[in-house]
Amino acid sequence: MSKGANYIEGYKPRRMSVATALKKYWQLYLLLLLPVVYFIIFRYKPMEYIIVAFKDYKLNMDLWDMPWATTKKEVDIFKWFVKAFSDKNFHTALKNTITLNLLDLIIGFPAPIIFALVLNELTAKRYKKVVQTIAYMPHFLSWVIIYSIALQLLAPTSGLINIVLNNMGIESIDFLGKADNWVWTYIMFGVWQNFGWGSIVYLAAIAGINPELYEAASVDGAGRFKKMWHITLPGIKSTIVVLLIMALGGILGGNFDRNFAMQNKLVLEKAEVISTFVYKRGIKSLQFSLTTAVGLFQSVVGVVFLLSANFLSRKLGERGLW
């Protein structure tokens, strides 16, 4: 097998020294400096406050002067973790977070893939652009606005959908005040907001597929569905795997704006999630040590899911994240 015209046996390229690289590409390193400084100040420096999860927080004391968490005058650094896991409200928030995120993953993750595949099959360019624009627009709406739209559409007595149902002789459905109905309303509005924006990555991946593969498939008599199944989907499989790994990493995460805007007292049994639990206990009740412990637990589990998903993808022959 030919090793290429530029291959010379025994030749090893010289590695550029740091000083030479800085001198040659100083403009690029200068551009890189700002995001590095940003991450150090706003991402890494605040991480020292993780230690609050193992201390008794004192508002009037420096971080490193605060006493370690104690139980009955004995040091117990896991005091706040134990307290969190013995809290019924935390159990409810944890269960709801996992349930809602899994439903988001099962229903919401395939939606942009399907939309990108369908959009790719459209031949009318003008119509395709109009559809894309309409699908992207909800992504730029805040959840306060989206919930206002939900109220106008789904309110039990004055909502447009219930008015139509009543005119058809069907009883009103309490979409926002009944817990089980609220879950599906929450999921569907999440899909509606994100599927158009999420399809951008898949459309970019589809654009990178070699057109000659489609031409060869047409010569062999393949229809649109077969081309989609045997060319398009395999062509974007690596992109799907990477985004799925990232989604699994956020299985205990949560969009605070979305949950806080859409929840109400009637559906808290299904709507209370970790992010709103942390807000209510940490910001409103000033239990900073407890909520820091909860946040640390949430982050560690997220990293474990991320690493596990990446490991499995590598084992199954995919590239993974690294």
The backbone outline, from C-alpha atoms, is: flat
Give the overall pLDDT as a whole number: 88
Separate helix tally? 16
Low-confidence stretches: 1-5
- Measured on Cα atoms, how large is the radius of gyration? 26 Å
Summarize the structure.
The chain has 322 residues and is mainly alpha-helical.
Protein described:
66% of the residues lie in helices and 1% in strands. The protein is mainly alpha-helical. It has a domain at 87-143 and 178-315: MetI-like fold. It has a two-stranded antiparallel sheet with strand order 1-2. A hairpin with a 2-residue loop joins strand 1 and strand 2 (74-75). The relative contact order is 0.11. The model is unreliable at 1-5 (pLDDT under 50).
Structure characteristics:
single chain; 322 residues; mainly alpha; MetI-like fold; two-stranded antiparallel sheet; 16 helices; 66% helix; flat
Mind sketching the topology for me?
Blueprint: H1 18-24, H2 26-44, E1 70-71, E2 74-75, H3 79-85, H4 88-108, H5 110-121, H6 125-136, H7 143-154, H8 160-167, H9 179-207, H10 211-219, H11 224-235, H12 237-249, H13 256-262, H14 268-271, H15 274-284, H16 288-315
Antiparallel strand pairs: 1-2
Helix pairs in contact: 3-16, 4-9, 4-15, 5-9, 6-9, 12-16, 15-16
